Amino acid sequence: MSLFPLRFREKRSVGLLDIIALLIGPEGYLVAFSASLLTQLLVTGPFMLLTCIPPLRPLKGWLVASQYFYKAEEGRLVRRQAGT
User: 32, 12 in Cβ contact below 8 A?
Assistant: First the structure.
C-alpha cells in the first residue's frame, strides 16, 4: 500500500487509517490522503462555521441563565486589615 493519494480506479479495503479518519471527521480524510490546500480550505471552513457558530447563542443563554439563577454580582476586592 502506497502512502501517496490513490487513483480513482484502484480498489482497496477499509483499514485502520480509514476508521481513525472517519472518527476525526472530514478533516481526517483530507489529512490522511494528502488533499490539496484548496480542498482542505473548502471543506474545513464550512465545517468549522457549521459546528462552532450555531452553539454560541444557546451557550450564551445558558451562561446568562446560570448567572441569574445563582444571583451573580459584580466582584469586589476584599481588603485585609493591618495586623491580621
Answer: no
> Mind listing the pLDDT tens digit for each residue in 12-34?
666 776 777 767 766 665 566 67
For Cα atoms 16, 22, 6, give the angle at the middle one, nearest 5 degrees: 65
Output b/e per residue, 25-51; b: 16+ Cβ within 10 A: eeebebeeeebeeeeeeebbeeeeeee
| CB burial readout 57-78, b (16+ within 10 A) else e | eeeeeeeeeeeeeeeeeeeeee
Neighbouring CB atoms inside 10 A of 83's CB total 4
Q: Over 60: is that where the pLDDT of 1 sits?
A: no
So where are the chain's domains? Answer: 16-69
Residue 64 has pLDDT above 90, yes or no: yes
Amino acid present at 82: A
